[in-house]
Design a protein that fits this description.
The chain has 126 residues and is α+β, with helices and mostly antiparallel strands. It has four helices and nine strands. 18% of the residues lie in helices and 36% in strands.
Length: 126
């Protein structure tokens, strides 16, 4: 399993990559492998200001649906429209083309409080 060192992680299995005050957010390699084949990604919060740990959407696999939680407070700027036609990108490229939302982060320093790759690996026992 892949856990890039340049990302931060949450206990709910989301990752975040900060570029200035804009963050790309998706689910981890571990999460996609646990869910199985992703068939649908639903984000209905574009334009909304959300608090950390609020639900920003859901992800549907063949046998289950899981909520997606925002790692830090901010405004949801954009959902990855590519996932509408090819949700399986979350499986094949979870840290690249499989990103789920872009968020304007309210306080970029909040990202520092999230889990490092090593801390996340310890959390999931890898």
């Amino acid at each position: 399993m892949n856990f890039p060192e340049n990302l931060k992680y949450t206990k709910d299995h989301e990752w975040i990559r900060l570029e200035g005050d804009v963050a790309f957010i998706g689910i981890t390699d571990f999460a996609q492998s646990e869910l199985g084949e992703i068939v649908f990604v639903d984000v209905t919060t574009v334009g909304d200001e959300l608090e950390a740990e609020e639900t920003f959407g859901s992800i549907e696999a063949v046998k289950t649906v899981s909520d997606l939680f925002l790692p830090v407070a901010g405004e949801v700027l954009e959902a990855n429209e590519t996932l509408e036609d090819t949700p399986e990108l979350v499986n094949s490229d979870p840290y690249g083309e499989g990103w789920i939302v872009k968020v304007k982060v309210a306080n970029p320093a909040d990202v520092d409080a999230l889990l490092s790759a090593a801390d996340y690996k310890a959390l999931i026992g890898k």
